Amino acid sequence: MLQKIRDKTEGLASKVILYVVIAVFALWGLDSLVGSVFLGSKVVEVNGTKLSDTEIERMTQQKIQEYFANLAPDQDPGAYDENLMRANALEELIQRELLRQVAKDSGMVISSDTIDRRIAVTPDFQVDGVFNAERASILLRSMGYSPAGYRALLAQETLLNQQLATYTTTGFATRADIERIAALSHQKRSFRFLTLPLDAQGENLEISDEDIAAYYNANELQFMREEQVKLDYLELDKNALFAEVAVNEDAILAAYNDEVSAYQAQTERRASHILFGAASEEEFAAADAKAREVKARLDAGEDFGALAQEFSDDTGSAQDGGDVGYTTGSNFVANFEQALQGLALDQVSDPVRTEFGVHLIKLTEVSETEVPSFEERRADIERTLKAKDVDVLFSRRVEELGNLAFESFDLSEPAMQMNLEIQHTDWFGRSGGAGIAGNPAVIQAAFGAEVLGEQLNSATIQVDANRTVVVRVAEHQDEELRPLDEVRGEIEVLLRIDRLGERARVAGEGIVNSLKAGDNIDQLLQVQDLAWNQQDNLERNAFTVNPEVLAHVFSVAAPAQGETLVQGFQTSNGDYVVFELQSVVDGTAADFRDGEQESLRNFISQQSAANDFAGFMLGLEARAKIVGKQSYLQSGGEDDFDLDF
To answer: Longest Cα pair distance anywhere in the chain, in angstroms?
Structure first.
């Protein structure tokens, strides 16, 4: 197809068109250049400090990424509003700048020691729980930060967090707050109710064809079949590429040997020692002589722990018989580790000199990780070694598939060249379907302007970490009204339920009116096989009664002293409930269960703090001079000038 395009650009007319296109793009480039050099980027100013459009755009993209990261499986990925994201991003940047200015005006600073401690305890900068400068440097470079830039960013973040903490840690809940909530949350109501169910003999109701047709004509939107498509698609599966990549057997064996070495390095040894402290050469000589005397006593059979308590200058470990814990080979100084590595279990070393003095070292325990056999590990190692090459191959295939799909009128040519099978989905609508039709990106592409509107192949779509597809609409059905014969049964059921519900409602309202009039309805209830259900001192979250009943009972005002309140309502399933509210007793703080009051107090405190902080920010914004905010948002973050050509 590309060759055909090239062939058709050889004529004079084609060349003229081509030159016009080049000129247009040149002017477009000039437009951008003039806009950026002479007019500058659109900015928002906060008390004279500029927020550049680049900064706002970066925050906007961060907001969009957060949106997609938290996207629910059934949520439309195209439903987000980029202008709203940009507005939120701009608002956050304005608030951060206002807080930074307040901190500066207040003389708040963050010390270098505080920043150093924050960096040192950052888990991503640690290796085996210890800060590693090389790892930190690599990670910072990968994120585009210099060490100084990261320290400045961290200082600013810490400063902002300190200001936030002044509010979040000072919220409080009063006794009146707690008692007021207790009165409502643990309020107790006594009532009785009865339920008039849908008539069990409802199947005897006559639903005429005329009634069905009338309902159908009056509620056509209820019976619309959504727009649907069937897709043809090609799928690249990364897992299928592992068979195409070969790994040398020697490489697998070498990787296994590296694993064995790593397992051996993980062997833990537990040590005890007797330390004879020394600093000068004279002290080292005396310590060595003393160590040899104690070693002779150990060789004669005396107890290591007892001699450690008697002679060791390491008073902390001496109380534990000289025990200094476990090491994988890096916890102690080099000479100590080297001597420990050479000991058999329960063996005591000759005197060992370190910077702290002279040690007698005993190996008390060895904990070795069991090394799996080569055959047990072979398949996993082979796949791991192949993975890098497979990733590269998969990326190339995805790019190739995308190019072929773009150049082709259908999927036949890409399928043939890449030896892929054209697969098919069943019918599905914008709410999705089975298989790849359940993927939000596939749904969005399938109903998009290019794939559906222009009948083109899609770009490559990543279904999951290992699968990528291109799709094409095979068949399309517009939204249409389902035939009456297809929905007749549904309508009949709806009408039957509706009429049965109407019967229940009429009967129920009759009971309500009789009760309000003071009539005795006991005989009526007996005839209809109905009975009161009495509930005493129930709280609103009780699980022994239908939640719909509780919701209505707790939604009405308390009756006057010595009186009752009668009401009725229809439930979601069509039944009709009549209830009589008899009494209402407010709850007290004594009704709180274990931990409930403390949780409530914390919640109120957090809400109070949040409200205080929100008020503080509103005050800052009201007093601030913020220039360009509305014009920036109205322009959608774009420059508001054009060059016509």
So the answer is: 116
Top CATH class, 267-367: alpha beta
Q: Which residues contact 173 (CB under 8 A, 6 or more apart)?
A: 600, 601, 604, 605, 608
The tokens 């930060």 sit on which residue? 145
User: Nearest to residue 587, comparing CAs of 574, 596, 578, 577?
Assistant: 596
Secondary structure of residue 448 in the 3-state scheme: coil
Asked if the model's pLDDT at residue 119 lies above 50, the reply is: yes
CB atoms within 10 A of CB 217: 9
Q: How far apart are CA 426 and CA 415, in angstroms?
A: 20
Token reading at 388: 């890098």
The residues, any chain, with a CB within 8 Å of residue 347's CB and separated by 6 or more, are 362, 363
pLDDT tens, position by position, 27-77: 334 343 334 333 444 578 999 999 888 888 888 888 888 887 787 766 666
Residue 604 contacts by C-beta under 8 Å, 6 or more apart in sequence? Answer: 171, 172, 173, 177, 178, 181
Per-residue pLDDT tens for 202-261? 556 788 999 999 999 999 999 998 999 999 999 999 999 999 999 999 999 998 888 887
Q: Which residues pair with 232 in a beta bridge?
A: 424, 472
> In one letter, which amino acid is 12?
L
CA distances from residue 55 to 52, 81, 166, 567, 632 in whole angstroms, order as listed: 5, 19, 27, 60, 13
Q: How far is 483 from 363, CA to CA, in rounded Å?
A: 86
Q: Strands 576-585 and 565-570, how do they pair?
A: antiparallel
Burial of 614 from C-beta contacts in 10 A (0-12 / 13-18 / 19+)? exposed
Alpha helices in 481-521 (DSSP H): 484-516
Dihedral sign of CA atoms 218, 221, 222, 228 in order: positive
Please give the structure tokens belonging to residue 545.
């009664």
Lookup: tokens for 115: 């920043």
For the whole prediction, is pTM greater than 0.70? no
SS3 content of the chain, % helix, strand, coil (to 5): 55, 15, 30
pLDDT tens figures, 308-317: 999 999 988 9
C-alpha 198/C-alpha 136 separation (Å) is: 70
Phi (first) and psi of residue 104, to 5 degrees: -65, -45
Cα three-residue angle 35-41-46, rounded to 5 degrees: 155
